[in-house]
């Protein structure tokens, strides 16, 4: 394995873990909030189920992204700022308009 392939795998694993962690934390926050509002055993079971659902959904979604275009591609699309896509065109348009 070449060194670039190793770094690519490491970055894909890191992105996969970020996706799983994101959904897991969302499930945990929702489950904790539900349990905090009504602290009974049946609500605890529901909260645990919601937390597990977030984890399982995160696993399946991250794996689906990995098998598609890749987890790093997915995260780069999620974190991309659409305002910055046409910055150069806007700058040149402003320069031409001010002359």
Which features does this protein show?
99 residues; mainly alpha; flat
Shape call: flat
Helix and strand element order: HHHH
Helix percentage: over 70%
Largest sheet: none
Note down, in words, how this protein is organized:
Helix 1 (3-37) runs antiparallel to helix 2. Helix content is 84%, strand content 0%. The model has no long low-confidence stretch (mean pLDDT 86). The chain has 99 residues and is an all-alpha fold. The protein has helices at 3-37, 41-67, 71-79, 87-98. The protein is flat.
Blueprint of the fold:
Layout: H1 3-37, H2 41-67, H3 71-79, H4 87-98
In a nutshell, what does this entry contain?
The chain is mostly helical and 99 residues long. The protein has 4 helices and no strands.
């Amino acid at each position: 394995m070449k060194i670039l392939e190793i770094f690519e795998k490491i970055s894909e694993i890191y992105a996969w873990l970020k996706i799983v962690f994101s959904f897991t934390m969302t499930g945990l926050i929702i489950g904790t909030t539900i349990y905090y509002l009504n602290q009974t055993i049946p609500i605890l079971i529901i909260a645990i189920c919601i937390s597990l659902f977030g984890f399982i959904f995160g696993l399946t979604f991250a794996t689906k992204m990995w098998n598609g275009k890749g987890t790093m591609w997915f995260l780069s699309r999620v974190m991309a700022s659409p305002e910055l896509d046409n910055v150069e065109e806007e700058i040149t348009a402003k320069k031409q308009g001010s002359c």
